[in-house]
Design a protein that fits this description.
By secondary structure, the chain is an alpha/beta fold. It has helices at about 25-40, 125-130, 140-155, 170-185; strands spanning about 5-10, 45-50, 95-100, 115, 120, 135-140, 160-170, 190. The strands form two sheets. Strands 3-2-1-6-7-8 form a six-stranded parallel sheet. The chain has a two-stranded antiparallel sheet with strand order 4-5. Helix 3 packs parallel to helix 4 (about 170-185).
Length: about 190
Amino acid sequence: MSSRALLIVDVQHDFCEGGSMGVDGGIETARRINEHLLRHRGEYDQVVATADWHHDPGAHWSEEPDFVDSWPVHCAAGTRGAEFRPEIVDALQVAAVFRKGHHDAAYSGFEGHTEEAGRSVALADWLRERGVDTVDVVGIATDHCVRATALDSARMGFTTRVLLDLTAGVAPETTTAAVGQMREAGVDVS
């Protein structure tokens, strides 16, 4: 029997308008994700979220970022920028939050871990322990962390769908390229 999870990727202050790396449409995306979950909660056996949670990610943070491998300071652990947007308050009644990037870039949610019963559990293991085989991915940014998460999800054997209208991308060109990469990898992008 198929078990489905909704994976909400990085809907944090720093990735929405007004944040250190704000993506146009981020706040509206947070609202739409919340509305989607209120309407479709019964379709998901599990709802989880990922969050950038940087302590010292090395060269990932830069005073002179190239916006390819280095970025402005964002989602520093324990800061307002790393908190989830309030527009997804209902959606964030999640079973677990997987924090990623403590000391590295960590684009994919599958690099994240949660603490459970005194142990650190990786996202893929957590999903498999609950019989999840199908994942819907939503969040920010389509062309970076959503892309990386969806690609890893498919690579790890999960049937993966990205709900494109519930994502926000940094730029049209990179978003279009990311959609192409995901489709080539067998991700359903709808």
